[in-house]
Sequence to fold (137 residues):
Amino acid sequence: MAFGNGLDADEDMVSEINMTPLVDVMLVLLIIFIITVPVLTHSVRLDLPRADNAPDLVRSESVTLSITADGTIHWNDEVISDAALESRLLASAGRQPQPEVFIRGDREVAYENVVRVMAAVQRAGILKLAFVTEPGT
Fold:
């Protein structure tokens, strides 16, 4: 409601927001929330069991298999042959926990060489195999 001195000859419409209905709605919503929040809590009292949630600190070792552009295979930093790769993978697969195998293939390496190493890892029965790449720009 606009208050004026009544001396204005032109009766312009005055636009004002009436805050009373807004306050009423907010008070009703506040009362509804105050009433419903205690109802939403669990009404059955239980003595729940306690457990530690400490992370498992058993770490498996990791093996990095690098394949150079000419197809040479490196076990971590050591050059190995295909036969030595098979025997080392079989020995690693028998350990508990199994090591994680990371394959790093050169950008110029033939796809066949990478697939050959992947197949050797699969034949050995190692379950954790990952590829290492560099982030693109």
Observations:
- The chain is about 35% helix and 15% strand.
- The beta strands are 62-67, 73-75, 78-80, 100-105, 129-131.
